[in-house]
Amino acid sequence: MARRWSHVAGFDDAPFPRSHRGDVLVVGAVYAGRCLAGVLSGAVRRDGRNSTAVLIRLVGESRFRPHLHAVLLQGIAFAGFNVVDLRALHEGLRLPVLVVARRRPDLAAIRRALLLRVGGGKRKWSLIQDAGPMEPVAGLHVQRAGLSLEEAAALIRATTWNGALPEPLRTAHLIAGGIATGESRHRA
């Protein structure tokens, strides 16, 4: 029997200046079918290590949690290099988690940056490796926990109806950008 993907939360971080230090806004758009059912927001530390705990708290303590079928992330890191522990997020929420990217990331450049310029970079690189390879599916690249590649494709198809990205991610991106800069810009 195929899984249902009607109730999904998608998370993205807000844009911030390169010189910014401190907390960065993270926004979640919660969809029930094609209807925006709610918005979640919190803050994670720039290049920190609290993104997993913040996401578990935001989703786990929300009124939406009992109905959710999956969580989508726009990339595996928020606020620069605050890398999400994909397995811990999946286990903490007991929900499938799908990391989505438009393009395959340059892992060699990410590794160099983490190991040479970011505090705790070795641990963060390990989290990226533990999440598994970026796999092409439905015109995007994904990392996943708690769902098969076929289920990931079905989840993307079920939640994408306006552009290339799943609507919960597109909406979270637009909301986060609008709050942080006063107006959303760039394509989601």
From TrEMBL:
It comes from the Bacteria. Signal peptide: none annotated. This is DUF99 family protein. It comes from Sulfurifustis variabilis.
